[in-house]
Design a protein that fits this description.
- By secondary structure, the protein is mostly beta strands.
- The protein has one domain: Thrombin, subunit H (Beta Barrel), CATH 2.40.10.
- About 10% of the residues lie in helices and about 40% in strands.
- It contains 3 helices and 7 strands.
- The chain has helices spanning about 55-60, 115, 125-130, and strands spanning about 5-15, 25-35, 45-50, 65-70, 80-85, 100-105, 110.
- The protein has a 6-stranded antiparallel beta barrel with strand order 1-2-3-6-5-4.
- It is globular.
- The relative contact order is 0.21.
Length: about 130
């Protein structure tokens, strides 16, 4: 049996209702995935996010969640896509601030150059059009 190499990234992330909806939580994420190839969608991935208690409560009551990772540590093409969120469990996280992340659909990469990111994370086109 042949297995794919596994990669781990630590990235800042934001979870919203839908792709362009209200922000429910933000925090540091650990993402684990099988290497799929440059710029290919990640169909199978998992991770965790650390959030405050208010964010954890908002996420537990929400549906249609979407995660967006921000550029960090040489990752200039962060992923975004649908996500499922579940508590880690009281035994491993008595404060209830860590949440498991899993795929609710493939993550795709946004393509930004280091020059585009020099002034911060680009705004979504829909947020800037009025």
């Amino acid at each position: 049996m042949r297995t794919m190499p596994v990669e781990t990234q630590t990235l800042p992330g934001v979870i919203t209702v839908g792709a362009d909806g209200e922000e429910l939580a933000r925090g540091w994420c650990i993402v684990v995935y099988e290497m799929a190839g440059q710029h290919l969608p990640l169909a199978d991935w998992r991770g965790e996010i650390a959030v405050d208690s208010e964010s954890a409560a908002r996420l537990s009551a929400a549906a249609d969640l979407h995660i967006r990772f921000h550029p960090y540590g040489g990752v200039y093409e962060p992923w975004h896509g649908p996500v499922t969120v579940a508590p880690v469990g009281e035994e491993d996280d008595p404060n209830g601030r860590r949440l498991r992340l899993s795929s609710a659909g493939p993550l795709i990469r946004s393509r930004y150059s280091p020059d585009e990111l020099r002034h911060g994370f680009p705004e979504l086109a829909s947020a800037t059009e009025e």
